[in-house]
Specification:
Layout: E1 9-17, E2 20-26, E3 35-41, E4 48-53, E5 57-62, E6 68-73, E7 77-82, E8 85-90, E9 107-113, E10 116-121, E11 125-130, E12 136-139, E13 152-158, E14 164-170, H1 192-205, E15 212-218, E16 223-226, E17 234-239, E18 245-249, E19 253-257, E20 263-265, E21 275-281, E22 284-289, E23 293-296, E24 301-304, E25 320-326, E26 329-334, E27 338-342, E28 347-349, H2 354-357
Antiparallel strand pairs: 1-2, 2-3, 3-4, 5-6, 6-7, 7-8, 9-10, 10-11, 11-12, 13-14, 14-15, 15-16, 17-18, 18-19, 19-20, 21-22, 22-23, 23-24, 25-26, 26-27, 27-28
């Protein structure tokens, strides 16, 4: 993506159908948060719209109503977008820099079950809201225990039976060791996912205790621990059409399990890269790593090279953000290249109007 006046990255994307999707552009400027929420609806002659917010939007999803998009910021703002109009609500106490922040930390993930929305975040934050009612606190903790910070709830998915699966991280309470810029693996062009990996490593190195990874099953009220190794680093959770649950992450991590909570590590032939997203497409698992896509048949990891839309962006190297399958099409969201639809053969990149890529949006011309 080539933009004027700033260097945006695609931070999160979601699709409802082949011709209806949304994504967020932003810069990781913590002292000047800004996100452009861009939507595309092919049912209209002019399909594009954009809404700007002075927050860092971290998650998007479509509600059951096809014309309703929900967006979550890391400060606990929830935006409900209908027909170009925006309704705003704020989760009391959530966030880091918000005026009402109570010290629990950032919010990370938004889920919807029927008419009820759920938000998960640092400090074991879980909130719920039914319809347009007030937000209720289910869980929140800023004290921690046993020399560890409170668990941070990150990725979460809605399972086919209505329960939710949540990944959680517990970090030592001691301060981080050293400066991120001094880490031997640091480079200015690292993806946000890889930067998180490095920071987690430095947190663990700065104390006597290791980083601990957990997974929970959540029915809307009760959290039940799922048995997974604590020394793994999770980057994505996914349930395929056959009800298998996949967990992928750092160092080529692939765990396969079921709704009963039984998980086994899957070994394979291929590079042990950090895996950040997974979907089931064309009768196999497709996974994204920091700089590539891969097909996994259960034994062998085969690299898939997307045909990119501009060879001069990032030296013609992919920078995957996430994957999603709808209507038999795989959506590929890329930090630097944008949005692409793949049918297994043709890489159909979305031509985003230049006006939508500008920091100061003055409407479509």
């Amino acid at each position: 993506m080539r933009a004027k006046g700033w260097s945006p990255r695609l931070l999160v994307g979601t699709a409802l159908s082949k011709d209806q999707f949304s994504f967020v552009l932003g810069e990781l400027e913590y002292d000047d948060p800004f996100s452009a929420i861009i939507t595309y609806d092919g049912n209209f002659p002019q399909p594009w719209s954009r809404i700007d917010v002075q927050r860092e939007v971290v998650d998007l999803l479509y509600a059951d109503e096809k014309d309703v998009l929900l967006a979550l910021s890391n400060e606990g703002d929830v935006y409900t977008i209908r027909g170009g109009q925006v309704d705003w609500s704020k989760i009391p106490g959530a966030g880091v820099l918000s005026d009402d922040a109570e010290g629990y930390g950032a919010t990370h993930t938004l889920l919807r079950r029927g008419e009820t929305s759920f938000v998960f975040g640092a400090g074991r934050q879980i909130y719920e809201r039914t319809g347009e009612a007030a937000w209720n606190v289910i869980s929140a903790d800023k004290s921690g225990s046993d020399g560890y910070q409170p668990e941070s709830f990150g990725d979460a998915i809605l399972l086919g039976d209505g329960d939710m699966l949540i990944e959680a991280v517990s970090l030592p309470a001691q301060p981080r060791a050293g400066n991120l810029l001094d880490h031997p693996d640091y480079r200015p062009d690292l993806t946000p996912e890889r930067l998180v990996d490095l920071m987690d490593q430095m947190n663990a190195a700065g104390s006597g205790g290791p980083r601990r990874q957990f997974v929970y099953r959540f029915d809307g009220r009760t959290l039940d621990r799922v048995d997974v190794p604590e020394d793994i680093v999770i980057r994505d959770l996914y349930q395929d059409p056959n009800k298998n649950i996949w967990i992928v992450g750092v160092d080529g991590l692939i765990l396969k399990g079921n709704t009963g909570g039984n998980f086994d590590r899957v070994d394979f032939h291929g590079d042990r890269e950090t895996l950040i997203s997974a979907v089931w497409f064309s009768d196999k698992l497709i996974v994204a790593s920091d700089y590539s896509l891969h097909g996994f048949d259960g034994h062998i990891m085969t690299r898939i090279k997307p045909v990119l839309n501009d060879p001069f962006i990032n030296r013609n190297t992919p920078t995957p953000n996430g994957l999603q399958v709808v209507d038999g099409i795989m959506f590929y969201f890329d930090y630097k290249h944008g949005v692409c639809r793949w049918d297994g053969e043709i890489w159909d990149w979305i031509d985003i109007p230049e006006a939508l890529l500008e920091r100061k949006f003055e409407g479509l011309r």
